[in-house]
DNA sequence: AATTTTTGCAACCGCCGTTGA
DNA sequence: TTCAACGGCGGTTGCAAAAAT
């Protein structure tokens, strides 16, 4: 199936059905939102919603801007490099779509998520219910390692453990305390003693000038390696704990994760 | 050609963290 | 310290287009 461009950019109303169930954005609404944000800037979406004259809520405005109207949005087919990166990142991170999208300039988390669920996930035969589209609560919850690092039930963060927090894996190694990935542990006293690696900085920093090898894997930093050792206990136990510096000079445009295999 | 099924994606939903009063 | 508003995220769904029958 080839679906190109903005096939449904305008509101679609079925014949004889006055109210579309899905409230698609109209070009006029896009124009209003775009003009307002370009004039006043991003942020404060509730205000944007009110003052722009949009009938949309703040969240809807933010989503529309972020996923569709924002400058430098790259649309169209994913390149092979982008596909490879998504696969590799998903293998490492699970359904951390925003984090994965952060490594793909011009791509949004929603686009990456959709692309995974429609194009890539079906090719991963090891995943439960791979290939099916609906009833997907477990489809994308598994990395290839069987590790779930999704956010909704296992929120990264602040040490507040929600009473509703559950894990979606039966892996006994994944517990309610270790499956949370800290966004900023420096402000979290409850987690300071855990020495949890900061995954956010790990995958957003581009300043590293060395590559780190562990087995045949390539890491950007010791802290990245630390992440795998911390969150994937089997990672350490399965290999000799030895890694070496990469003597090769750092290549700025080369994402080391592309080398991860 | 008509109908049914599948696919792809935009948008919504709800949860949770952060922030400020 | 509490609470409401807001923002961000991942999961889910509605529906048109494309493919299959």
TrEMBL record:
Protein name as catalogued: Uncharacterized protein
PANTHER family assigned to the protein according to its UniProt record, in alphabetical order: TRANSCRIPTION FACTOR MYB8-RELATED-RELATED, TRANSCRIPTION FACTOR MYB82-LIKE
One Pfam family recorded for the sequence: Myb_DNA-binding
Renumbered residue ranges of the record's region Disordered: 153-203
Organism: Malus baccata (Siberian crab apple)
Keywords associated with the record: DNA-binding, Nucleus, Repeat
Sequence ranges assigned to domain Myb-like in this UniProt record: 17-69, 70-120
Subcellular location: Nucleus
Bias (Basic and acidic residues): 180-198
A single GO molecular function term of this UniProt record: DNA binding
CDD domains in UniProt: SANT
UniProt superkingdom: Eukaryota
InterPro entries xrefs: Homeodomain-like_sf, Myb_dom, Myb_TF_plants, SANT/Myb
Biased composition regions of type Low complexity, renumbered to the chain: 156-179
Ranges of residues in domain HTH myb-type: 21-69, 70-124
Keyword set includes S-adenosyl-L-methionine: no
Key word Thylakoid present: no
């Amino acid at each position: 199936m080839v679906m190109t461009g903005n096939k449904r950019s305008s509101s679609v109303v079925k014949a004889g059905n006055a109210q579309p169930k899905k409230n698609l954005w109209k070009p006029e609404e896009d124009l209003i939102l775009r003009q307002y944000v370009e004039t006043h800037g991003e942020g404060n979406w509730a205000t944007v919603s009110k003052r722009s004259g949009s009938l949309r809520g703040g969240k809807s405005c933010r989503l529309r801007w972020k996923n569709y109207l924002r400058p430098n949005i790259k649309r169209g087919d994913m390149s092979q490099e982008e596909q490879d990166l998504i696969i590799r990142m998903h293998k490492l991170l699970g359904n951390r779509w925003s984090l994965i999208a952060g490594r793909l300039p011009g791509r949004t988390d929603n686009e990456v998520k959709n692309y995974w669920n429609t194009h890539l996930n079906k090719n991963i035969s090891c995943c439960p219910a791979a290939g099916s589209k609906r009833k997907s609560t477990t489809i994308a919850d598994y990395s290839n390692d069987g590790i779930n690092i999704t956010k909704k039930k296992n929120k990264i963060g602040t040490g507040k453990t929600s009473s509703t927090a559950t894990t979606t894996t039966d892996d006994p190694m994944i517990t309610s305390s270790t499956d949370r990935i800290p966004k900023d542990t420096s402000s979290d006293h409850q987690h300071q003693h855990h020495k949890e690696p900061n995954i956010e900085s790990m995958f957003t920093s581009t300043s590293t000038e060395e590559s780190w090898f562990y087995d045949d894997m390539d890491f950007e930093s010791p802290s990245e390696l630390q992440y795998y050792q911390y969150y994937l206990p089997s990672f350490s136990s399965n290999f000799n704990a030895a890694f070496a510096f990469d003597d090769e000079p750092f290549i700025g445009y080369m994402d080391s994760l592309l080398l991860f295999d």
